[in-house]
């Protein structure tokens, strides 16, 4: 039986330090003191992981939108 999280031997995956440090120190430009003081939950919130995701329309919804807002002919802009 496979563990819910981790690899096939049942151990959890190691924490992704490289991507976390890149996001915190390079993208967010946090001072090292602030980066190392953050909890994983605070880092997740800072990089946008806690915001609600927008719903994606299914095929029927997409077709309804395409019918309501059809593309015009190319070159017919005025």
From TrEMBL:
Which Pfam families does this entry report, sorted A to Z? Answer: Phage_TAC_6 (PF09550)
* NCBIfam families, A to Z: phage_TIGR02216
What name goes with this protein?
Answer: Phage protein (TIGR02216 family)
Q: What is the lineage of its organism?
A: Bacteria, Pseudomonadati, Pseudomonadota, Alphaproteobacteria, Hyphomicrobiales
């Amino acid at each position: 039986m496979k563990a819910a999280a981790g690899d096939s031997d049942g151990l959890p995956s190691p924490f992704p330090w490289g991507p976390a440090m890149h996001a915190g120190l390079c993208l967010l430009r946090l001072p090292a003191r602030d980066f190392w003081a953050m909890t994983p939950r605070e880092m997740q919130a800072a990089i946008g992981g806690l915001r609600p995701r927008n719903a994606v329309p299914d095929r029927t919804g997409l077709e309804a939108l395409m019918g309501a807002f059809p593309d015009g002919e190319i070159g017919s802009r005025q």
